[in-house]
Amino acid sequence: MNALVLYDSKFGNTERIAEAIALALQEALPTRLTSVDGVEDCSEALVGVDLLVVGGPTHAHGVSQPLKDPLKCLGNHSLLGMRAAAFDTRVHGPRLATGSAAVRLERLLRHRGAWVVVPPQSFLVQGTEGPLDEGELERARTWAREVLHAAGVRLPTPSGA
Question: Are 148 and 155 in contact (CB under 8 A)?
Answer without folding.
Answer: yes
